[in-house]
Write a structure and sequence with these properties.
With 186 residues, this protein is an alpha+beta fold. The protein contains six helices and seven strands. The strands form two sheets. It has a five-stranded antiparallel beta sheet with strand order 6-5-4-1-7, with no helix packed on it. The longest helix is centred in the first third of the chain and has 19 residues.
């Protein structure tokens, strides 16, 4: 048992390094940026389905990658997919997620490293929240992605989605101790 745990602990750094240098593909044509920002200068345009190798460097939702030709730059994580996932796919959700993450991460230039969740999205630190400033351009972009009820119904109809009525959850029961008057003594 101890040997198994020790072997797993020793293998973890190798697995982490392998995960940080995985090969990915672009979901659509995207810009390879010189900095981890949507407003950074474009180094190159990567075609849809371009294979890139992820480096260990991350900055919020931005990942540093290397192209087959050796060029290194930054791309937004929502623009990449695992290379074995088949043909690249694109949808409106990618743009919405980029807009939302750009809005929430604006002004976050702390350069701190934060643990990554299993989904690969970094949480907001106290410093990120304190330094946050709204990105009005990203908010405007999100406003253009808004769908009204008719658009949502048309989308559901085109994809043969079926509506299901679900009963509302009951209100949580209040514990008697919570509502009971309290007496305090000195």
């Amino acid at each position: 048992m101890v040997r198994s745990a020790l072997a797993a602990a020793l293998a973890l750094p190798a697995l982490t390094a392998q995960a940080q240098t995985e090969t990915l593909q672009t979901k659509q044509a995207i810009s390879l940026r010189d900095q981890p920002s949507a407003t950074a200068a474009t180094l190159a345009t990567l075609a849809s389905g371009t294979s890139v190798t992820r480096t260990p460097q991350r900055s919020g939702p931005w990942m540093q990658v290397q192209t087959a030709s050796g060029q290194v730059g930054w791309v937004h994580m929502f623009e990449l997919t695992a290379s074995n996932a088949g043909a690249p796919a694109s949808n409106g959700l990618t743009g919405a997620l980029r807009g939302l993450s750009g809005f929430l991460n604006r002004g976050s230039n702390s350069g701190t490293t934060v643990a990554t969740s299993t989904a690969g999205i970094r949480g907001l630190s106290k410093e990120d929240i304190q330094n946050a400033a709204p990105n009005m351009a990203a908010l405007e972009k999100l406003e253009h992605l808004r769908a009204d009820e008719a658009q949502a119904r048309r989308y559901a109809s085109e994809r043969a989605l079926v509506a299901h009525s679900i009963a509302a959850l009951p209100a949580p029961a209040q514990a008697a101790a919570v509502n009971a008057p309290r007496e305090y003594s000195k």
